[in-house]
Write a structure and sequence with these properties.
Length: about 650
Amino acid sequence: MATIDTILSETRVFAPSEAFRKQATVSGMDAYKALCAKAESDYEGFWGALAKEHISWHKPFSNVLDETKAPFYRWFYDGEMNVSYNCLDRHLADKSNKTALIFEADDGKVTKVTYQDLYHRVCQFANALKAQGVAKGDRVIIYMPMSIEAVVAMQACARIGGIHSVVFGGFSAKSLHERIIDAGAKLVITADEGMRGGKAVALKSAVDDAIGMGGCDCVEKVVVYKRTGGNVHWDAQRDQWWHEAIIGQADTCEPVWVNAEDPLFILYTSGSTGKPKGVQHSSAGFLLGAILSMKWVFDHKADDVYWCTADVGWITGHTYVAYGPLAMGGTEVIFEGVPTYPDAGRFWKLIQDHKVTTFYTAPTAIRSLIKLGSDLPKQYDLSSLRLLGTVGEPINPEAWMWYYETVGQGHCPIVDTWWQTETGSNMIAPLPGAVPTKPGSCTLPLPGIIADIVDEQGGPIEKGQGGILVIKRPFPSQLRTLWGDPERYKNTYFPAELGGKMYLAGDSAHRDKDGYFWIMGRIDDVLNVSGHRLGTMEIESALVANPLVAEAAVVGKPHDIKGESVVAFVVLKGQRPTGDAAREVVAQLREWVGKEIGPIAKPDEIRFGDNLPKTRSGKIMRRLLRSIAKGEEITSDTSTLENPAILEQLKETVK
Ligand code: PRX
């Protein structure tokens, strides 16, 4: 892959500036190394002290880590606390008038919310949820646009010990249906519609469709936030407007004290099988990861204006929108719209208007904004920026350099943060006042994160060689299990081949002479399209569910902007189509996948064959399909193929 080649030959190094280093929370390499050494010499002491210092406990914990049922780890497990209390109540004494949220709507309307206001809104909505019958441990699905209300809904669940499961608004009714059932949700919170790029996105109707598919008897109520006032179908028994649900509810609400290990949320993500996994996170460990990374990686300061562009439907929007910045008592921007509306200067205008100091986004967004107007940032005053971050996929050195020079104007460190839905918070990322950065590398693990690269049996690899990325010791913010499927949790993340105790991230990586990590890509059948994680099997199952389709195989192909694009090889039940007929079927199948999973999963390319390349034992040779998708010459031996002639058909794209 061209990107990886450029990354591997990258030699530029950017040390923190003197000015940045001086003011940084972790200042200088020695300070970073001292923290790492502390963690290594007394692992539990290190984490225990941090948890005591950074979390307000209702009942202090006396035990740090319980490994007796490994890999089902427990952290701070006899302590009691509440995440919402830590994000709101504890700031009221000295920050009640501080702005917590600056919300900018798609149309540019700005709403600011202070800590005092947010506290009352969360309390009032928490009381409304209780009145709808939500109690500790109940699951609540949140299917909302980016909004103040989405954060209020998440915080309100946390306040009463409810377990939220946010479903990204770009997922289809079918995906929502699966998640409602898997989580056994009692309540769904949604909006009539969202607004993105001047267009309304129907949300309530998707909830109606999802519940209408049957099997959702667990859902007792649907609470609907009125965002646009668009027409919605109404079930008077089941549906309840948000603004009506809060009428008469008190604006204070005693938090429900939960055990450190009680689940805060479930977030579904794609894996190697067709069925999404419900990643379950704890309360205290998750919060600790969010706080420490805000402090160490984002060097968070009291007067920062922090802006993470991720949607709350993804883990980044959980840790760095709904929880981390609020736990720090910080001010953050929340944006409803898209980077290109009304034009490709929108992000830069937001940074200028709200004097954003810390900006965190995905390489895909950076690459698309370079393409749409590489000079645009110069038309805005970006002098408030002091730190930039990226997340979700490898960043190519060219995009990194543009981000550094054009957006950061050569004085903002870039934190390239490697982590996952499962890890809950940043794992490998530079501490910007300490660790020199290299374009394309996420650099070194956070203190206390014992990351390594091993071979397929968990053994050491030769220096400089690529291998499998693992984390060798449990850490507080890691997932606790997969909702309802502990066996899958064990087998997926702590496979016996690696000894059953190492966390298998699912990525391959290599380390350079300075010990820096360079992420190479997934080792499983997971694609990373525009920073969104998609399982190839999920898309294949969606395709074969179409009555026209007999068989399908999906692979990724490098893409300049999206990182990877989705290429599907399809065998129809009828004849292999060509010309207009093929174009027609392609359009139908793309639409179909959009409905089955969501628009983000629509294949970019679909090719047809009379069959797929298989070994004599019937196994689809995906390696060959990847080469075909990339347009590479096939030089490997294809003699084991049952049907070599198929390859020629599959080389043909539908134009
Ligand atoms: O392959 C890695 C890639 O994204 C995967 C995790 O995806 P998800 O759970 O959706 O979380 C994304 C946001 C945390 C990883 O296994 N990935 C994430 N961050 C980086 C990355 N690849 C390279 N560099 C990164 N900084």
